[in-house]
Amino acid sequence: MKLGMVGLGRMGSGMTERLRKDGHEVMTFDPQVESTASSLEELAQQLESPRVVWMMIPAGKITEDTTNQLLGILESGDVLVDGGNSNFHDSQSRNKAAAEKGVHFLDVGVSGGIWGLQEGFCLMAGGPEDAVALVRPALETLAPPNGWAHVGPSGAGHFVKMVHNGIEYGLMQAYAEGFEVMNASEFELDLEQIAGIWRYGSVVRSWLLDLLHDAFDQHGGDLRDIAGYVEDSGEGRWTIFEAINENVPAPAITAALYARFASRQEESFAAKINAALRQQFGGHAVKPEQ
């Protein structure tokens, strides 16, 4: 099939290459790199009706602005796909705006990272069935066997991807805590070796563990050249917000998000409060600030 790709970053470029390798004709637009089109208008002109335009750009204002621009360009029957990590509420609103113009809107959660080109991307599509059918050839190329699904109506794709990323937070934090316990132990353990053997036959084997073993191999067992500062891109927060709205307990994901917050603090004011209170009620010594 022929489609347009907006955004040629790490994900968009890999997806474009995977599509082209399988015989799809992909027209592109990204003002930061060489593309087939110099504008969204030109990109639309390079496609045939019904046109399919896939956005792989950061969530937030840039996606909102690009969506609005494309809805002013695309025509009834065309399909606009958001493959970024947008909030599912925003996707539902964009679907309504697209429907008013007769444009189909799909929210497709994409997982695979920089390995997607080689291994395939897991795809979670939300939106109308007829629009999914139009994009199906691209979905089947991008995903590995059994690696994509139409998960529900508008918003469902990004909702499922949101929860996927929340789970990812919890899994990563569990590995992080376990390896920290081993790193602090009385035994001089080879963490790279342990990560390596756990990949085979172990109950905790996973692709994340494969990647951790690779990280130890690249950076050493003490990860000496990596700072313990962990960002979050939003999906973990949104997962927790929805858990609260649904009255669903999500303690592991919540704790994992808070651990990321803690990683960014040079010093904890809460810890100072605790130290001050222990001194006040019990006369416990405090450690002076350096």
What does this structure look like?
- This protein is an alpha/beta fold.
- 51% of the residues lie in helices and 12% in strands.
- The protein has a seven-stranded mixed β-sheet with strand order 2-1-3-4-5-6-7, with helices on both faces.
- The protein starts with a strand and ends in an 8-residue tail after the last helix.
Largest sheet descriptor: 7 strands, mixed
Number of strands: 7
Structure class = alpha/beta
Q: Write down the overall geometry.
A: elongated
Low confidence ranges: none
Report the order of strands and helices.
EHEHEHEHEHEHEHHHHHH
Strand content: 5-15%
Count of discrete alpha- or pi-helical segments spanning 4 or more residues: 12
Q: From the alpha-carbon coordinates, what is the Rg to the nearest angstrom?
A: 23 Å
| Strand ordering within the main sheet | 2-1-3-4-5-6-7
Rounded mean pLDDT score = 96
Distance between the termini: 64 Å
Q: Fraction of residues in helices?
A: 40-55%
Features of this protein?
290 residues; alpha/beta; 12 helices
Which helices and strands occur, and which strands form pairs?
Blueprint: E1 2-6, H1 10-21, E2 25-29, H2 40-45, E3 52-55, H3 61-71, E4 79-82, H4 88-100, E5 104-111, H5 116-119, E6 122-126, H6 129-142, E7 148-152, H7 156-183, H8 191-198, H9 207-219, H10 235-245, H11 251-263, H12 269-282
Helix pairs in contact: 7-10, 7-11, 8-9
Q: In short, what is this structure?
A:
The protein is of the alpha/beta class and 290 residues long. The chain contains 12 helices and 7 strands.
